[in-house]
C-alpha cells in the first residue's frame, strides 16, 4: 500500500521585518497574472523540507502576462521599478550554486505615485525546461518585482510552475492505457525491450517489458523468464529509481544522487526452470514522477530506471537495471507530483 499523506503547506507570508518595513514604506505590492485563477494553480511538494504550496502553472510556450499593482498609502516616490522573469538551475548543496538561463526585465521610470498604479508586463521567452524540485537539484521560474528606493529597495517574488508536453512522443508513442488489453495481458512487439541477467552457471533469467517510453500515468507490463535456477532465491523485486546528476559548472565535480521511488515484490520462493513471472506496474501510483530530463543546460540530468533485484536466502542481492524514458503526454499539462496525494486525501475524507 502506498502511504498517502498531505504535506505541510508552506508558509507564504513575508518575514516580520519585511512586513514592518512595507508598512513603514507605505506601498503595497501585488502581482496579478492575466488569465490565471484558482483553476490554474497546481499543488507542488518539496521532498527536502516536506512542504507543499500552490503555484500558477504555465506551459513552455505560454507568455507570462500581467500587471504589478502598486497601492501607496499617500504620496510615494520611487527611483524606478524593475519587473523580471528569472529562471535558473540551482543546487541544494552548500553555496547555492546556480546557472541562470532566462533573465528578462521590464523597466519603469522613476515616478511619484498618488494612488493605485498598474504596471503592465509581458514576457514571451520560451521556457525550455520543466520546473523541478529534487533532492539535489532545483529548476525554478520566478517573477521578481524590485522597487528602487533611496534607503532600501522593496522586492516581491512569485514562483511559477512550468510544464512541457512532449508533442513528438505524444504523437509517435501509443497510449497503452487506451488498449483493450491494458488490464488483461501483455503484448510484446517491436518496441519491447529485453535484458538478460546471469550469475555464472547458477542463474540465468530474461527480463522483458513491452516498451521503453512511458507517459506519466501509463503502466509498465513485462515478464521474467527463468532459464537456469541453481540458486536458492528468497524473493524478487522490481524497483523504479530516479537518478539526479549535477555536473560542472554547477559543482566542482560530478554529483550523483539516486533514490528508490517505489518497490514491487514480484515473486516469493525459488522458481523452477521455464517459470514465467508477470510484471505489471502502474506509474500513476508512484509519487514524485517527472519527465526524464536528459540534458538541462549541459549541467544536470534526471533519469529513471527499472531495477530488477533478486535476494537469496543468504541475503545476497543481485541487481540488473534498465533505463526507461518518461514523458509528459498531451492532456497532462497540469499533472504534478502531488496529484496522487490529493486524490488519496479526497478518498480518505469521503470515508
What brief labels describe this structure?
Vps26-related; 3 helices; 2 domains; 351 residues; 52% strand; Arrestin-like_C; 6-stranded mixed β-sheet; Immunoglobulin-like; mainly beta; disordered N terminus; 8% helix; 8-stranded mixed β-sheet
Written description of the protein model:
With 351 residues, the chain is mostly beta strands. It has two domains: 8-163, Immunoglobulin-like (Sandwich), CATH 2.60.40; 167-332, Sandwich (Immunoglobulin-like). Helix content is 8%, strand content 52%. The protein contains three helices and 23 strands. Strands 1, 3, 4, 7, 8, 11, 12 and 13 form an eight-stranded mixed sheet that branches. A hairpin with a 4-residue loop joins β22 and β23.
Count of strand segments: 23
- Fraction of helical residues: under 10%
Q: Give the biggest sheet.
A: 8 strands, mixed
User: Proportion of β residues?
Assistant: over 45%
User: What is the alpha-carbon Rg in Å?
Assistant: 25 Å
Number of helices: 3
User: At CATH's second level, what is the architecture of the largest domain?
Assistant: Sandwich
Judging from the principal axes of the Cα atoms, what is the shape?
A: elongated
Spatial separation of the terminal alpha carbons: 17 Å
Note poorly predicted spans. Answer: 1-7, 11-24, 338-351
Structural class: mainly beta
Family: Belongs to the VPS26 family.
InterPro entries: Arrestin-like_C (IPR014752), Vps26-related (IPR028934)
Topology at a glance:
Layout (H helix, E strand, L loop, with lengths): L7 E2 L6 H10 L1 E7 L7 E6 L4 E9 L4 E9 L3 E3 L2 E11 L6 E11 L2 E3 L3 E7 L8 E2 L3 E11 L6 E10 L3 H6 L20 E7 L3 E7 L3 E3 L3 E11 L3 E14 L8 E14 L7 E7 L10 E4 L3 E13 L4 E11 L11 H12 L1
Parallel strand pairs: 1-4, 4-13, 16-23
Antiparallel strand pairs: 2-5, 3-4, 5-10, 6-9, 7-8, 7-12, 11-12, 12-13, 14-15, 15-17, 17-20, 18-19, 18-22, 21-22, 22-23
Pfam families: Vps26 (PF03643)
InterPro entries: Arrestin-like_C, Vps26-related
Family: Belongs to the VPS26 family.
Amino acid at each position: 500500500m502506498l502511504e498517502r499523506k498531505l504535506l505541510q503547506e508552506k508558509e507564504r507570508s513575508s518575514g516580520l521585518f519585511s512586513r514592518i518595513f512595507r508598512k513603514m514604506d507605505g506601498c503595497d505590492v501585488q502581482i496579478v497574472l492575466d488569465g490565471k485563477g484558482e483553476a490554474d494553480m497546481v499543488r507542488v511538494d518539496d521532498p527536502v523540507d516536506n512542504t507543499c504550496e500552490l503555484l500558477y502553472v504555465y506551459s513552455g510556450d505560454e507568455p507570462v502576462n500581467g500587471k504589478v499593482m502598486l497601492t501607496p498609502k499617500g504620496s510615494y516616490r520611487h527611483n524606478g521599478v524593475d519587473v523580471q522573469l528569472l529562471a535558473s538551475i540551482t543546487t541544494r548543496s552548500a553555496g547555492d550554486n546556480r546557472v541562470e538561463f532566462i533573465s528578462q526585465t521590464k523597466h519603469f521610470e522613476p515616478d511619484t505615485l498618488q494612488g493605485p498604479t498598474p504596471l503592465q508586463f509581458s514576457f514571451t521567452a520560451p521556457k525550455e525546461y520543466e520546473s523541478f524540485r529534487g533532492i539535489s537539484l532545483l529548476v525554478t521560474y520566478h517573477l521578481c518585482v524590485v522597487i528602487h528606493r533611496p534607503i532600501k529597495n522593496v522586492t516581491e517574488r512569485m514562483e511559477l510552475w512550468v510544464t512541457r508536453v512532449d508533442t513528438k512522443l505524444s504523437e509517435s508513442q501509443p497510449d497503452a492505457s487506451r488498449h483493450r488489453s491494458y488490464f488483461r495481458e501483455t503484448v510484446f512487439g517491436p518496441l519491447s525491450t529485453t535484458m538478460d541477467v546471469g550469475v555464472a552457471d547458477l542463474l540465468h533469467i530474461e527480463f522483458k517489458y513491452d516498451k521503453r517510453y512511458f507517459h506519466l500515468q501509463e503502466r509498465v507490463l513485462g515478464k521474467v523468464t527463468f532459464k537456469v535456477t541453481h540458486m536458492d532465491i528468497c524473493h524478487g523485486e522490481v524497483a523504479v529509481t530516479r537518478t539526479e546528476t549535477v555536473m560542472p559548472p554547477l559543482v566542482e565535480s560530478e554529483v550523483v544522487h539516486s533514490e528508490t521511488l517505489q518497490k514491487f515484490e514480484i515473486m516469493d520462493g525459488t522458481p523452477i526452470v521455464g517459470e514465467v513471472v508477470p510484471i505489471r506496474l502502474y506509474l500513476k501510483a508512484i509519487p514524485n514522477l517527472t519527465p526524464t530530463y536528459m540534458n538541462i543546460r549541459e549541467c544536470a540530468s534526471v533519469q529513471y530506471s527499472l531495477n530488477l533485484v533478486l535476494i537469496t536466502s543468504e541475503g545476497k542481492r543481485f541487481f540488473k537495471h534498465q533505463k526507461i524514458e518518461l514523458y509528459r503526454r498531451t492532456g497532462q499539462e497540469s499533472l504534478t507530483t502531488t496529484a496522487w496525494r490529493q486524490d488519496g486525501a479526497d478518498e480518505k475524507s469521503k470515508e
